[in-house]
Amino acid sequence: MRKEIKTEIRINATPAKVWAILTDFEKHPNWNPLIKFIKGDVAVGKKITVRIEPHEMKGMTFSTKVRAFEKHKEFRWKGHLLFPGLFDGEHKFELIDNGDGTTTFKHGEKFNGILVLFFKKMIEKNTTHGFHLMNQKLKELAES
């Protein structure tokens, strides 16, 4: 079973400014309604610890491996619940320079595994809403 969340928002700020906010992990608890912390050596191939609190849900903390970390462009990780194939998620942030001082921020996640069916409603409602809330807060910070 597979499920994917795709969101995007246009931000009136450069990719450098958006990236600076997104990767200032110590400040996430102050502004981010979805991702409460990211800890560890954020580099490709390294393990990090992430805490996500989807809208109106109990949060979860998990270890994951960084798959991409390209300055001003992309940050992506993939994690698993207990073991691969049960409930996997590949989370992605992508920044697109629109060439006019604005950035298109794409934020998504691809879920797969045998438990996706059981979490489908949570993903569609709470997790997707949390992505939109985070995108809006990031926009507000970058444009202020």
Descriptive report:
It is a single chain. The chain is of the alpha+beta class. It has a single domain (2-143), classed as START domain (Alpha-D-Glucose-1,6-Bisphosphate, Chain A, domain 4), CATH 3.30.530. It is built from 3 helices and 7 strands. A 7-stranded antiparallel β-sheet has the order 1-7-6-5-4-3-2. The longest helix is centred in the C-terminal third of the chain and has 28 residues, at 116-143.
Chain-wise SSE layout:
Elements: E1 2-11, H1 15-22, H2 28-31, E2 35-40, E3 47-52, E4 60-70, E5 74-80, E6 88-97, E7 103-112, H3 116-143
Helix pairs in contact: 1-3
The number of distinct structural domains comes to 1
Largest sheet: 7 strands, antiparallel
* CATH topology term: Alpha-D-Glucose-1,6-Bisphosphate, Chain A, domain 4
Give the helix tally: 3
Give Rg in angstroms: 15 Å
* Overall average pLDDT: 93
